[in-house]
Design a protein that fits this description.
The complex is a heterodimer. Chain A is mainly beta. Helices cover 0% and strands 52% of the residues of chain A. Chain A has no helices and eleven strands. In chain A, a hairpin with a 5-residue loop joins β5 and β6. The N and C termini of chain A lie far apart (37 Å). In chain A, 34% of the residues are buried. Helix content of chain B is 0%, strand content 57%. Chain B contains no helices and eleven strands. In chain B, the strands form two sheets. In chain B, strands 2, 4, 5, 9, 10 and 11 form a six-stranded mixed sheet that branches. Chain B has a five-stranded antiparallel sheet with strand order 1-3-8-7-6, with no helix packed on it. The chains are: A mainly beta, B mainly beta. At the A-B interface, β5, β9 and β10 of A face β5 and β10 of B.
């Protein structure tokens, strides 16, 4: 399967600032990546589908101007949380869509805390 | 719409067998996944079912009935390290995954 990394693993920021999270596919060219958000004791909620070379597709209720996604290459997608608020504090996880049985390979996640 | 239901929590004893159920109603179906997730970590793949029947992989087995919108994950010879959340996820049209709420399994000695 694909090996996926995320950076940073943890980040603490002040309210009103922007935070960029990187998702890298280390050994697989990923046309499609996904971004999820997970609040404590809840399941993963899909935020957006990131397609290389085109605009991301956002799920209903996710503000595209607040959560900026860039997928400029086949190995890197970035999620920027703009003007972060404490309620944006969450675990953000990316995944890479593999081939074959439609499996997704998940990154290790990024814990964002907004003070 | 889509609806995926799993029990919120389960408790079992080390060495025993536990079955985690998942029922679903989705507009599209392209397979069902089970993932294991330890606290603070990303989900790890356990199994994939797209046809009816049982898929066995070591101590873990997964069953699917598409007509009933039902799946279960069976864990045998439970170990303490199996304490985790188990996520049922449907792959619908467009290869997107919709996750159930997850089942937190606690394995006791």
């Amino acid at each position: 399967g694909a090996v996926v990394s995320q950076h940073p693993s943890r980040v603490i920021c002040k309210s009103g600032t922007s935070v960029k999270i990187e998702c890298r596919s280390l050994d697989f060219q990923a046309t499609t990546m996904f971004w999820y958000r997970q609040f404590p004791k809840q399941s993963l909620m899909l935020m957006a589908t990131s397609n290389e070379g085109s605009k991301a597709t956002y799920e209903q209720g996710v503000e595209k101007d607040k959560f900026l996604i860039n997928h400029a290459s086949l190995t890197l997608s970035t999620l920027t949380v703009t003007s972060a608020h404490p309620e944006d504090s969450s675990f953000y996880i990316c995944s890479v869509l593999g081939i074959g049985n439609n499996e997704q390979f998940f990154g290790p996640g990024t814990r964002l805390t907004v003070l | 719409g889509q609806n995926i239901d799993q029990p919120t929590e389960m408790t079992a004893t080390e060495g025993a067998i536990v079955q985690i159920n998942c029922t679903y109603q989705t507009s599209g179906f392209n397979g069902l996944f089970w993932y294991q997730q330890h606290a603070g970590e990303a989900p790890t793949f356990l199994s994939y079912n797209v046809l009816d029947g049982l898929e066995e992989k070591g101590r873990f087995s997964s069953f699917l009935s598409r007509s009933k919108g039902y799946s279960y994950l069976l864990l045998k010879e439970l170990q303490m390290k199996d304490s985790a959340s188990y996520l049922c996820a449907i792959n619908n049209a467009g290869n997107m995954l919709t996750f159930g709420g997850g089942t937190r399994l606690m394995v006791k000695p």
